[in-house]
Every structure is written in C-alpha cells, then in structure tokens.
Amino acid sequence: MEEEEEEEEGLNRGAQAQLQGKVLFLTICAAGIGGTFQYGYNISIINAPTTYIQTFINETWLERTGASLESGVILLVWSFVVSVYSLGGLAGALIAGPMAIKLGRKTSLLLNNAFVIIAAVLSGFSRMAKSFEMIMLGRFFTGINAGVSMNIQPMYLGESAPKKVRGAVALTSASFTALGLVLGQVVGIRELLGGEESWPLLLASNVVPGLIQLITLPWLPESPRYLLIDRGDKESCICALQKLRGNGDLSSELEEILAEQAAMKGQRAKSPWELFQNPAVRWQLISIIVLSSAMQLCGNDSMYFYASYVFQEAGIPYDKIQYVIIGTGCCELITAVTCNAIIERAGRRLLILGGYSLMAVWAIVFMVALSQQSRISWMPYLSMACIFAYILSFGIGPAGVTGVLPTEIFDQMSRPAAYMICGSLIWSNLFVVGMAFPFIVEGLGHFCYLPFFTVCVCTALYVGFFLPETKGKTFLEISNEFNKRNFKAQTCEKFWKGPEEIKSTML
Fold first, then answer.
1. What global pTM score does this model have?
2. Closest CA to 263 of 499, 38, 35, 480
3. How far apart are CA 297 and CA 6, in angstroms?
4. What is the DSSP letter of 495?
C-alpha cells in the first residue's frame, strides 16, 4: 500500500515538473517571438531591398520635383533610413524603464506591439503613398519596439525563472535575436519577399511576430518578483509561481523573494541618474557600462560589412552570396543555442572572457588575411573563415550574457534603470559604429579592425580582473558580493582622511 502511495506521489511530482516546464517554455517563446526576435529580424530585412528602396527614393523625388537626386544624396537618405532604427532603439530603451515599473513586465511587452503595428502600416503602404518618409518613420517606430523589448524581455524572463536555470532562461533573448536575424535573411532572399515588387511586404512582415505575441502572452503569468516586491501583491505572486513551478513546494523561493522585499522596504524605483550618484552600485554600474559599450564597439556587426566582399574574392558567384550570408546568421544562432546549454555549467564570466579573447585573436588574423588577400591565393578563404569564427566567438558569450547581467547584479528597485543605461549605450554605440565605420575603413584600410581589437582586449582584461561570477547565486548573494567591493573602496577613502574628516563621517 505504501509502495503504491509513493509511486503515485512520484507520478504527481513528475506531472508537476512537466507542467512547470511547459508553462516556462511557453512564457519564453511568447516573450521572445515579439521581443528580441524583432531586433534581429528588423536588422536583417533592411539589407535585401537596398537597391530597390534607393531606386524608389530617386523615382519619388523625380516625380515630385522633376529632378533626379545625385547618387551621394541618395546614399545619405538611405543611410538615414538605416540609422534611424538606432535612434528609435535609443528612444525605446529610455522609455522601457518607466514602462516596466508602472505597467509591469508582461503588460509592457504587450503594449510595445503597438509600435511595430504602426511601423508595419507605414512601411507596407509607403510605395502606394509614394512616400519614402513613411519608411523612415516606420523604421523609427520599429526601433522603439526593439529598444523596449531588448530591455524588458530579459528582465521579465530572469525574474520569472528559478535560480538554477535563471541564466539559461534569460539568455534565450540572444537566441531569439539570432533566430530573427536568420529568418530575416531567409525571408529577404529574392525568391521570397526580397524582390522588386514585394519589398513593402518584407518591411511590413514584422507585424506577424507581434500579432503572435498579442495572442499568446496574455495567457501567461506576470513576473512573480514584480508582483510581490513592486506591487506588494503576495496572492498574485503565489499564483504566478504556481503556474510557473507547478504545485510543489514553493516555500524556499517565496522566502527568498520575501527576503528581497524586506531588504527593499521603504525604497522606490531608482532613476538612472540616482544610480550614477549611488556608491553602493558603483561596480555594478561600471560593469554594465563596459560590457554594454563593448557589445557594439567590438565590431561584430561590422563583419557583415565585409562579408559580401570577402565571399566574392573567395570565388563565390554574386547571385549565390545571399545564401552564404545566411550561414553567418546561422553561426550566431548555433552559438546562442549552445551558450544556452552550457551557461549554467561554464558560468557567465568564463563565457564573456573566452568570447572577447577569441575575438581579439581573430581580429589580428583577419587584418593579416585582408592585407595579404591580393598576394596569396588562399587568403580570401582565411578571411572567410575569420568572419565565421569572429561571429561564433561573439555568439558564445558576449552576445547573450551581456543582456543577462543587469538582471542578476542589480536589485529589484535598480534593475529597470540599469537596463535603461544598458540599452541606451547599446543603441548609441550601434549608431556611432554605423556612421564611423566607413571612415575607419577609409583611414586604416586593411587594419580597420585595430580599434575593435583594442576594445576586445580591454574588455577581456576587465572581466578577468573585476567581474565576479553570478552562477547559481541568489540576487541578495550577488548584491552582497558587489557590496564588498563597493564599500571596500569607501573604507580605503576613509583610511586616507584626516582625524577630523573621519570624526565628521562617523557623526
């Protein structure tokens, strides 16, 4: 009889674990498809119709004024069409924090789809309306959508996941970005939506992931931490935990959230400026500034700038290059998924350190290969290998782990502001690199990756010396570890003060 009861209890536990896994998996998918997926998708779909949109800009201007635009002016307008996406992303990053605090994580993600719906309407009807300005405006709204989702999605998933898989769950944001990049490259080939007649549909196709999220995400729970710590709603928190974890023992996790709530008692959500003024988060802030800046300044996106040229030099026919470039996106997707599988074993620190160290090595090899490409017959193949290796190295750590860290190293009241700072730096640097890289290539030639090499080396050194490991630790444990470093600096400052200054500090 006892054996039957134990067997039944074991089956119940298995069913609960299975239910928990399903709800968490659905939450990840629903948040990701309308979240960071859009960032990767909208970066890649704009590349395929470049020539057609430039022709459309010229024809529209000719029809309006009776005069054609010069090639330099067309290129300038096109550059603005591409770069306005970054400006929209910056705006999205700045409004993401207040949205997450006032509306909640899940509701913010749902309302964020309004921006992509507006963008799809503007871009989809731009040719019919004979207005290239509608494309610019559509790209700006698309950027806002990406800026909001890149901040809120990892925050939402990191707060909803159990401690033992928190890093892997939050890292799915990078996997969805890579998936969006690949699908955007696939949909953008000439045989699908990348043709001359179908490019408005290609630019408007980003509405589909948004609609999928609007249908699925409302059925899934809000972040339990947000419900208890921000809203003080214990019943809703328990209900959300039960949906995410099943009806098993939630006491230890609830106790941890209550301990964090007690530590946050009497505090309100911080603004970015307050974080800069607060010495208690000094090293956390330095860490996200260094890593967020390095994510764009490391030159990964610039590799795509060289891809077509290098592949053509390697003897790949021009009309086949679009298929080979899909391989670069697949590299990023493969490494993002691999990183998901190993992050809880390898840890965050090792993945970032290894990623930037390998990128520094490949940057040197790439510059050497470019400089010798016209002299040695097999050098184009080495250049091609470097492109894939650089993207793989970026995907193995920096691409995903950077987005996880603000969730882990900041407390509940500081987290939205930290993501605002993180997102603002990512989008600002994306804009700066996009504008500056052609001039870097012109000035440094084959050695254009020297600035990126410097960034990779400096970031690897910072991670190696200053960034603690966060794997398997509670939010309070991580906060305490950073506090030792933050207040150690204050202790050193007091040591160097005179007796009167120490006395006044104690008082």
1. 0.82
2. 480
3. 57
4. H
Q: Tokens 């599988």: give the residue.
A: 341
* Residue in 232, 240, 237 with CA at minimum distance from that of residue 267: 232
Nearest of 470, 357, 338, 464 to residue 404 by alpha carbon: 470
Hunting for tokens 């309308």 — which residue is that? 34
When comparing pLDDT for 502 and 55, which is higher? 55
Amino acid at 220: L
How far apart, in whole angstroms, are the C-alpha atoms of residue 400 and residue 146? Answer: 16
pLDDT at 487 over 80: no
Token pair for residue 364? 């040197």
218, with CB counted inside 10 A (0-12, 13-18, 19+), is exposed
Three-state secondary structure string covering 256-289: HHHHHHHHCCCCCCCCHHHHHHCHHHHHHHHHHH
**Consecutive H or E run containing 434:** helix 415-444
Q: What is the DSSP letter of 247?
A: S
Task: Name the nearest CA neighbour of 203 among 77, 143, 119.
Answer: 119
Average of per-residue pLDDT across 133-158:
92
What whole-number distance in Å separates Cα of residue 200 and Cα of residue 120? 9
At 120, list the tokens. 């799809």
As a whole number, mean pLDDT of residues 190-206 equals 88
pLDDT band at 322 (very low <50, low <70, confident <90, very high): confident
| CA gap 495, 493 in Å, rounded | 5
Task: Give, as one character, the DSSP assignment of residue 233.
Answer: -
Q: What is the pLDDT of residue 4?
A: 52
Annotate 294-304 with b (16+ C-beta within 10 A) or e (fewer): bbbbbbbbbbb
pLDDT tens digits along 381-439:
888 888 888 888 988 888 878 888 888 888 888 888 998 999 899 888 888 887 777 77
